Amino acid sequence: MAARPAPLVLPAGGSLRGRVTVPGDKSISHRSLLFGAIAEGTTHIEGLLPAEDPLSTAACLRAMGVAVSAISAGQPVTVEGVGLDGLREPADVLDCGNSGTTMRLMLGLLAGREGRHFVLNGDASLRSRPMGRVGDPLAQMGAVIHGRQGGNLAPLAVQGQPLHGSVIGTPVASAQVKSALLLAALTAEGPTTVIEPAPTRDHSERMLRAFGADLEVGGDLGRFITVRPGPALRGQTVVVPGDISSAAFWLVAAAITPGADLTVENVGLNPSRTGILDVLAAMGARLSVLHARDVAGEPVGDLRVQHGPLRAFRIKEAMIPRLVDEIPVLAVAACCAEGVSRISGAAELRVKETDRLAVMARQLTLMGARLEEHADGLSIEGPTPLHGAEVDSETDHRVAMSLAVASLVARGDTRLGRPEAAAVSYPGFWDDLARLRH
Ligand SMILES: O=C(O)C1=C[C@@H](OP(=O)(O)O)[C@@H](O)[C@H](O)C1
Ligand SMILES: C=C(OP(=O)(O)O)C(=O)O
Question: How far is ligand 2, taken at its centre, from the CA of residue 427, in Å?
């Protein structure tokens, strides 16, 4: 058996200063590739995230005959659309890697491709994540999807079928489930209405509209979305803003590290994603939004954060969709805040790349954190001095980067196993960390 690579040593001490531009938003990157693929004409994407997850989406699309240009940092990407029904049956399994968004949105995209057969697979983490939340509502539209555990676990086989429109209440507040249904609805017979139990990120709705889909958003906080099939999508120019979920590591790092002063540039500030800013404000963090502007249908701004005293926070279920991926790094922030921070209604974190409640509890405890794990959240006591330890990402990108943030305030060096997981969403993270440390 190959020896595991040596852990990354994260030295204690120092502070953070300067400016950083985080890579493109992962959610918007996936969607720009997918919608570009089924549009007519060419889609030009600026700022696409050149990380493992969007690369998985691009590879799946190429395997179905879509020409996607090479993806590398700083280079615009073009997608030659094949039209709403132009995807070819792939000759091999579609590999979704570590990406839940890829697999769930692909299910919606492929379920209605009549007469074509698709098999979707992924890595060990993805093969353990629930897919029935997409497959069950799609079955209501006529989809046929088979897999382990009654179609809940990949590998999944999709036998393309004619789909019919339906009114569907999604079983969980999930933008991935919603987006899969909207994709399926584009080629279904008759209109489809998707009703969410709580509002989730709305990048699909914004982008589908821009591509020319017939889409109506209504109800309290935009929770009802109706798609009428018919109009062809038209290739667009998409400008992808920086990912607030990647910016979150710098925001927390600067808020907790003595002497820190960081500006994160060009961050997407879609209100369905900015829960982390509300929590940092409630903690009393020194945070300001600069140059707020609109870029290609999404709000964008620069964020400046300086170190200062922090208070404990409370996060309840209703807030979770607006900061679902930021909970691991907020758990680190809680260790540095005065009082007991409580996170509840967050059971969704148990079905991410890892069980993020259990993994963060386990790893932060190794660094001296005082916390309790609950079925649906965490209670974390602060301020608690953290100390360096031998920790592990457990293969989860957000855990890797959150532990790196914790190492900044730890006494003594931290040794992090499997740091390479960061490349799933933020390939330049370790270089940016080295550059910003002083
Ligand atoms: O739609 C998306 O792009 C995403 C939605 C969220 O997942 P859920 O839909 O499972 O909440 C989020 O955690 C994930 O990182 C990306
Ligand atoms: C949960 C995440 O992504 P996905 O579901 O696409 O794997 C994430 O990026 O934190």
Answer: 15
